[in-house]
Amino acid sequence: MSEIIEQIAHCIEFGKINTASPYPPDMRGQEGADELTKKALAQGEDAGKILNEGMVAGMERVGKKFSENKVFVPQMLMSAKAMSTAMQHIKPYFLSGSVKRKGTIIIGTVAGDLHDIGKNLVGMMFEGAGWEVIDLGVDVNAEKFVAALKEKPGSSVGLSALLTTTMVHMENIVQEIRKMSRDTRILIGGAPVNMEFCKKIGADYYSPDPQGAVSYLNQQVA
After folding, report:
1. Is the pTM of this model over 0.85?
2. Which of 47, 83, 153, 202 has the fewest CB atoms within 10 Å, measured from its CB?
3. Which of 96, 121, 147 is the last residue of a domain?
4. For residues 190 and 208, is the Cβ–Cβ distance under 8 A?
5. pLDDT for 37-66, tens place per residue?
């Protein structure tokens, strides 16, 4: 791995967005993921390498730390912001076809639930891992998920709920998706749900953290 790609991975791991960003304090005044990604492309580094060896690697590192309770949501959000900022320089290469997406995932917080931090974090993790993310937002009913799947057949679906009163809507959404497509991969997440509930409603996978969800789908398309 080239030095500049490792620097990008380091910036994303520790949430260094750009030179102006004061976080983290020990990297104050240094170039961040934004400038380094732009510079790497200008130097002729391959966009796919920057994505996979720099950005994805950095998000995997912080995702692993998050899974082990070594970092927490604020640090994850800073890493995701650094990745998202750097991603703006890579997106033209997706559009040109020189960098391939791994697939598409449609995400949303289920009907009746307005919480979005967890969903947003999952979306940014998937984007950083090379997936196209279609974010339907919050309070999303079954009809919206089905309509999005009709527009993007073959996509996976991620359902989020933070309230015990709204997790019940997950089952209805799963049932409606299954009526249209038996093969759609459906992932669920959120504080009140678990693998037992996942199996009960007919979803495919539950993960307590974003990295687990990304790793699961990456394995399915490998």
Report:
1. no
2. 153
3. 96
4. no
5. 999 999 999 999 999 899 989 988 998 898
Task: Retrieve residue 13's tokens.
Answer: 């791991």
* Last residue in a domain, options 39, 67, 96: 96
Identify the domain containing residue 23 by its residue range.
3-96
Contact 133, 105 (CB under 8 A): yes
Residue 60 identity (one-letter amino acid): E
Whole-number Å distance between alpha carbons of 62 and 77? 10
Same domain, 45 and 84: yes
Helix (H, G, I), strand (E, B) or coil at 172: helix
Residues 20 and 89 both lie in one domain: yes
The residue ranges of DSSP E strands in the chain, in sequence order, are 104-109, 132-135, 156-160, 186-189, 205-206
- Whether residue 117 has pLDDT greater than 90: no
Write the single-letter amino acid at 164: T
